[in-house]
Automatic annotation (TrEMBL):
<feature type="domain" description="Cation channel sperm-associated protein subunit beta C-terminal">
    <location>
        <begin position="246"/>
        <end position="492"/>
    </location>
</feature>
<dbReference type="InterPro" id="IPR053903">
    <property type="entry name" value="CATSPERB_head"/>
</dbReference>
<feature type="transmembrane region" description="Helical">
    <location>
        <begin position="471"/>
        <end position="494"/>
    </location>
</feature>
<keyword id="KW-0812">Transmembrane</keyword>
<dbReference type="Pfam" id="PF15149">
    <property type="entry name" value="CATSPERB_C"/>
</dbReference>
<keyword id="KW-1133">Transmembrane helix</keyword>
<dbReference type="Pfam" id="PF22830">
    <property type="entry name" value="CATSPERB_head"/>
</dbReference>
<keyword id="KW-0472">Membrane</keyword>
<dbReference type="InterPro" id="IPR028748">
    <property type="entry name" value="CATSPERB"/>
</dbReference>
<dbReference type="InterPro" id="IPR048789">
    <property type="entry name" value="CATSPERB_C"/>
</dbReference>
<protein>
    <submittedName>
        <fullName>Cation channel sperm-associated protein subunit beta-like isoform X2</fullName>
    </submittedName>
</protein>
<feature type="domain" description="CATSPERB head">
    <location>
        <begin position="3"/>
        <end position="118"/>
    </location>
</feature>
Length: 519
């Protein structure tokens, strides 16, 4: 037999708990009403139950002892607590029983020895005992589940599976309509859990889709367990903790246009390529809105405390600029700048930044932004991760544009959203630089779309400013006109210097040439 149910009762003064068992091999009884050739009469006198035999053939004293059980199929069983005589005993019903009198025929009641012995040391064979069955079950999570605790961000969902198997001969048959795997959820109402159960012969595969419902940080746990597994099994349950918070390692990543096409060795060489990167002057600071040679930012690039600051002519420039890695150091060698930091694009490492991405005019940058997640594949950054762009050194000579989708237009009109007027769609982002020198941009994701502070820095150096429209075309036209006049003047001068020869009538002069061409 095996225990199929345990019940604890709190509304009784008798037995506080009981178990239900399923019997595969019948138990041997000590005696029965037929063997005693006696019917059984049960009388209730003020809560005390007297069990009386109709005959004295063998009686209670010769066949039964205190602690044995009188079993009546279909009726409550009675535990013998006192033998009064050969025909009368006192018993206690194992479940609540309120019938005053009960008459049972001789072939409908039995006596089982399911109680304790008076002398345990002399017992050679127990009438019954509890024994744990051998292990015939296993439960495993799928190979994609690498951690015990998973973190999900706003709008993310997680799909995984758990598999249970049965092997060998199990003396306890598994009902076909009862699942092997059971699930319990620690926190209800904060998530949506849907599952797909695939059941095959002696195996089950449970696929679970977990979706957070509330936009707040919280934690829950999913417990998958085998209800019929033996305690001898090394593992009978799988518990996964899910935290709705910022996943460690989730961030925005900017890629240069050549990074995805090169191997790590080629990429390292590309960082040293002067055609793709610009080497900043020592102690460089980018221009400000006050002038190209009047830096006012606190960030210093390619820092070297042993050398003077770049463009440090004005009082406002002398009073600005603070070292970070090089603070308190006497030379650049002591700043701890690694090769990786020398090509970094993060503002907190500005002292070490030596080379930045180079753009020639027209300086137009189309950032390749992706979203990195520790549990999901890398994907291009796209809505709902709307962004805005700022320049770390407070430069204003640039423009940021993107496709104005209906969602973006609605967000720009929402005055409750910080920086709502400069929100952009990251999938169509274009940054146009109008000046020269270093531009250090920071891309920040809209708040409330993630529990993470998603941002990324982009450092670009622009050179050779083109002339603004229409000055570029006016200068080109003027140069062509002056060149044509110079050629005509040279021609006339050479002919006059040659003697008295007259200029042929059919040879056009400069004035007639321009009249024929433009009239």
């Amino acid at each position: 037999m095996f225990i199929s149910k345990y019940v604890r009762r709190t509304n009784t003064q008798k037995f506080l708990s009981y178990v239900e068992v399923e019997v595969f091999k019948p138990l041997s009884y000590v005696s029965s009403g037929r063997e005693l050739n006696s019917d059984l009469v049960i009388k209730n006198e003020n809560g005390t139950y007297f069990l009386q035999l109709s005959t004295e053939s063998k009686g209670w004293k010769n066949t039964s002892k205190v602690g044995m059980s009188v079993v009546i199929p279909g009726k409550p069983s009675f535990l013998l607590t006192e033998i009064l005589s050969s025909v009368e005993a006192i018993g206690v019903p194992v479940v609540d029983f309120s019938v005053d009198d009960l008459y049972v025929q001789d072939n409908h009641w039995f006596v089982f020895n399911m109680g304790a012995y008076e002398n345990y040391e002399n017992v050679t064979k127990w009438p019954w005992f509890l024994q744990e069955k051998n292990c015939h079950n296993s439960i495993e999570r799928d190979a994609s589940i690498l951690y015990q605790t998973y973190k999900l961000d706003i709008g993310e969902k997680w799909t995984f599976s758990v598999t249970a198997n049965i092997w060998g001969f199990d003396p306890i048959p598994m009902p076909i309509n009862i699942p092997i795997i059971y699930t319990s959820v620690l926190t209800q109402g904060t998530e949506m859990v849907s599952s797909d159960l695939q059941k095959t012969f002696r195996a089950e595969n449970l696929t679970v889709n977990f979706t957070p419902l509330k936009i707040k940080k919280w934690e829950t746990a999913l417990n998958f367990y085998l209800w019929s597994a033996s305690l001898l099994c090394p593992k009978t349950a799988v518990t996964l903790t899910i935290q709705v918070t910022c996943p460690f390692g989730k961030k925005i990543k900017f890629y240069y246009d050549f990074e995805g096409k090169l191997s790590p060795h080629q990429l390292e060489k590309a960082y040293k390529d002067s055609e793709k990167f610009f080497t900043l002057p020592v102690n460089y600071r980018p221009p400000s809105k006050k002038g190209i040679a009047i830096p006012t930012t606190e960030n210093i690039y390619n820092a070297d405390p042993s050398k003077p600051k770049h463009n440090n002519y004005y009082e406002i420039s002398k009073n600005s600029g603070t070292y970070k890695q090089c603070l308190g150091k006497s030379s650049r060698e002591k700043c701890g700048c690694t090769d990786e930091k020398k090509v970094s694009r993060y503002a907190q490492e500005s002292d070490c930044i030596e080379k930045v991405y180079l753009l020639k005019h027209p300086a137009i940058l189309i950032p390749n932004l992706t979203l990195l997640h520790p549990e999901f594949p890398e994907v291009p950054l796209s809505p709902p991760y709307f962004i805005y762009v700022i320049e770390i050194n407070h430069r204003e000579d640039f423009t940021v544009t993107s496709t104005a989708t209906p969602s973006l237009i609605r967000l720009r009109k929402n005055q409750k959203i910080p920086n709502h007027k400069i929100l952009q769609d990251p999938s169509s982002l274009v940054i146009t630089m109008k000046g020269t020198g270093l531009y250090h941009f920071r891309v920040l994701a809209l708040d409330k779309v993630s529990f993470c502070d998603l941002s990324e820095d982009i450092a670009v150096y622009a050179i050779t400013t083109s002339l603004a429209y229409p000055l570029y075309y006016l200068i080109n036209a003027s140069v062509v006109t002056l060149l044509a006049c110079a050629l005509c003047a040279s021609y006339l001068y050479l002919h006059r210097k040659g003697g008295t020869a007259q200029i042929p009538v059919n040879v056009p002069t400069c004035e007639s040439y321009y009249k024929q061409k433009y009239e």
